[in-house]
Design goal:
The complex is a heterodimer. Chain A is an alpha+beta fold. Helices cover 15% and strands 34% of the residues of chain A. Chain A folds into 2 domains: 84 residues, Aspartate carbamoyltransferase regulatory subunit, N-terminal domain (Alpha-Beta Plaits), CATH 3.30.70; 48 residues, SH3 type barrels. In chain A, β4 and β5 form a beta hairpin. The N and C termini of chain A lie far apart (40 Å). Chain B has 2 domains: 135 residues, Aspartate/ornithine carbamoyltransferase (Rossmann fold, 3-Layer(aba) Sandwich), CATH 3.40.50.1370; 155 residues, Rossmann fold, CATH 3.40.50.1370. Helices cover 35% and strands 15% of the residues of chain B. Chain B has 10 helices and 9 strands. A 5-stranded parallel sheet of chain B has the order 7-6-5-8-9, with helices on one face. Chain B has a 4-stranded parallel sheet with strand order 2-1-3-4, sandwiched between helices. In chain B, α2 crosses α10. Chain B is globular. The relative contact order of chain B is 0.16. The chains are: A alpha+beta, B alpha/beta. Chains A and B meet through loops of A and α4 and α7 of B.
């Protein structure tokens, strides 16, 4: 470890292969893991840093996941929680791909409709479908509008 | 394929066109046997008198025939068949499907699996577009829709007819006055949409404070079946009632409408006043549904 690293406080070590999710909204790292299906019982090697100082955001969270490259639908989910997140795909310690997240116009199978009467909350062979609007998420089946607390509705 | 699912899907010109067509059907200006040879499935997963019978009557008057799911208990639904499968199967038997279902969004789902047109005859607390069209039709027969004062009274949270009607009226520059018991106010997604469309929505604590300003008073029933328990139902059920005393000093042209069935919200003595128009409104279901059935199958 170099002097510089010690001074800045190296919180987590680099990963050889996998994904680094940087610039996560401070405090949302655990929610990001939850929506990626990573729990205490999964086998991924993880590093999590929360409330790290950030020039851009003031404070931010960082998640490093070894040996896993995120799929597009996973990135879509992260965008809902951390719209400023950056996804870095790492291979052999090198960043081979760097991308921002983008909330898609339509979210299919990402968010559960909070309306208990919605047809998507049954055994019908359809996925929940939400249109992303400025005022919130609009269920295209039952017209329900999710205005806040979106993290709690992510499948 | 032309489906009729939600009043949100309609522009003003579409509504005006359907209302004009309904008028033609009511006045007998149509050739006989327009839908002869056509077969329609009436799939009602919830009880209904007016909607179901008026669709059947409308179809019969146009020369078509209907088959129906007489009871959910006697169908494969009890074996766990999905609505999607039911729709796919029934699509193979008929030329159109009229669907009522207790779940919001059921009709939208049906369009994904149907190979024939679907008409939404009410989906849970969601939309009921054919009722809205007959409400508009009833008003339009007495006065132009533009710029009128409409009061919506009752269960505005679960009452799907009030949601659909409010959205439709927003296309006609009306002023909406809402009067709802606590906890049964109009859902936020509807009020946001109304305000987005520039509609003035005025909330009132009681019907007394606004009834003299209204051209139309639309009364709805407390939706007992949508309450989690009977205690919370009875708590609000008796909180409003239209009586003849309440009607003193109202505008001469006031129309009282109700999608029916009523459960005590309107005193039967009001039926004898010129303001009571709800039975005429129910009758208008036939020409309006003739227009809808003809439109989806022509």
């Amino acid at each position: 470890m170099s002097k510089k690293d010690t001074a800045r406080g190296l919180l987590v070590s680099p990963i050889r292969n996998g994904t680094v999710i940087d610039h996560i909204t401070a405090g949302e790292a655990l929610n990001v893991l939850r929506i990626l299906g990573i729990t205490g019982s999964t086998t991924e090697c993880l590093s999590i840093a929360t409330n790290v100082e950030s020039r851009r955001l003031g404070k931010k969270d960082i998640v490093k996941i070894e040996n896993r490259e995120l799929r597009k639908e996973e990135v879509d989910r992260i965008a809902l929680l951390a719209p400023q997140a950056r996804i870095n795909i790492i291979r052999d310690y090198q960043v081979v791909e760097k991308k921002g997240v983008e909330i898609p116009r339509i979210l299919k199978g990402v968010v559960r409709c909070p309306n208990p009467g919605c047809i998507t909350n049954t055994n019908e062979p359809v996925e929940s479908t939400f249109e992303v609007l400025d005022k919130g998420l609009h269920c295209l089946y039952c017209d329900w509008l999710i205005k806040d607390d979106i993290a709690n509705h992510i499948i | 394929m032309y489906h009729i699912i939600s009043i949100r899907d309609f522009e003003r010109k579409d509504l005006d066109y359907l209302l004009d067509r309904a008028e033609e059907f009511e006045t007998g200006r149509y050739p006989p046997g327009l839908l002869e040879g056509k077969l329609v499935a009436l799939l009602f997963f919830e009880p209904s008198t007016r909607t179901r019978m008026s669709f059947a009557a409308a179809l019969a008057r146009l020369g078509g025939q209907s088959i129906s799911l007489d009871s959910v208990e006697a169908s494969s639904i009890v074996k766990g068949e999905t609505l999607a499968d039911t729709i796919r199967v029934v699509s193979g038997y008929v030329d159109a499907i009229v669907l009522r279902h207790p779940r919001e969004g059921a009709a939208r789902l049906a369009t994904e699996f149907a190979s024939v047109p679907v008409i939404n005859a009410g989906d849970g607390a969601g939309q009921h577009p054919s009722q809205t069209l007959l409400d508009l039709y009833t008003i339009r027969k007495s006065m132009p829709l533009d710029g009128i004062n409409v009061g919506l009274l009752g269960d505005l949270r679960y009452g799907r007819t009030a949601h659909s009607l409010a959205l439709a009226l927003s296309l006609y520059g009306v002023t909406l006055h809402t009067i709802a018991p606590g906890g049964l106010e109009m859902p936020v997604n509807i009020t946001l949409k109304l305000r987005e469309r520039g509609v003035e929505v005025v909330e009132h604590a009681s019907v007394e404070e606004v009834i003299r300003e209204l051209d139309v008073l639309y009364v709805t029933r407390i939706q007992r079946e949508r309450f989690p328990d009977t205690a919370s139902y009875y708590n609000v059920a008796s909180s409003y009632r239209i009586t003849t005393q309440l009607l003193e000093g109202v505008r001469d042209n006031l129309m009282i409408l109700h999608p029916l069935p009523r459960a005590g919200e309107i005193d039967p003595a009001v039926d004898r006043t010129p303001y009571a128009r709800y039975f005429e409104q129910a009758r208008n279901g036939v020409p309006v549904r003739m227009a809808l059935l003809h439109e989806v199958m022509r």
